[in-house]
Amino acid sequence: MQLVVARIGRAHGIKGEVTVEVRTDEPELRLGPGVVLATDPASAGPLTIASGRVHSGRLLLRFEGVHDRTGAEALRNTLLIADVDPEELPEGEDEYYDHQLIDLDVVTKEGEEVGRITEISHLPTQDLFVVERPDGSEVFVPFVEEIVAEIDLEEQRAVITPPPGLIDDRAEVASSRDASESGDAAR
User: Fold this and answer.
1) CA atoms within 13 A of residue 1's CA, in its CB half-sphere
2) What distance in Å separates the CA atoms of residue 121 and residue 139, rounded to the nearest whole number?
3) DSSP label at 44?
């Protein structure tokens, strides 16, 4: 199975290094020296990592055969893809690969069907499940402990406890202004 593990950003310096947007929780395993990665577009690769280092909080990689800024800049926006055994599981408990979560049924703790996970959106602050509802609409569910109560891979479902308004239009908005207006009307 192939998983996207990073996206190449801009060139860094003049010796062929590039910044990368890491898309794996295991960069030391997937983005280490000697690792060979497929690419999207395929014409850019495969690429073999020659070296890597962290600079100002960003991962910088250098690839074999890329020795200057021009070569590095030509790789910009290329996706780096690792071959992963489909049976391989992440090292940490309560960690999942995207392919394990795609197509899970999403239900509330009360058993109400919400939909099916069609995509995982990786944002800087948190990950989101993109859930397709039975009517074809989509809802975004933050993949956080407070909302996603359980992932059951055997039953192929994710159980959620959504706050009001996340999956329906029944959000309750309360403010002190509402209370003071109703109190004034009663006088």
Assistant:
1) 12
2) 12
3) G
Percent of the chain whose predicted confidence (pLDDT) is above 90 = 49
Sorting pLDDT into bands at 50, 70 and 90, what band is 187?
A: very low
Q: Token match 């994710």: residue? A: 158
Q: Judge if the upstream peptide bond of residue 46 is cis by omega within 30 degrees of 0.
A: yes
Please give the single-letter amino acid code of residue 92. G
- pLDDT tens sequence across 15-42: 999 999 887 777 887 888 999 999 999 9
pTM as predicted = 0.58
Map 46-66 to HEC letters: CEEEEEEEEECCEEEEEECCC
Sequence-ordered list of residues with C-beta below 8 angstroms from that of 135, at least 6 positions apart, any chain? none
Burial class (CB in 10 A: 0-12, 13-18, 19+), 148: buried
At residue 153, does pLDDT exceed 80?
Answer: yes
Helices and strands, number each (H, E), in the chain: 4, 12
d(CA 136, CA 180): 41
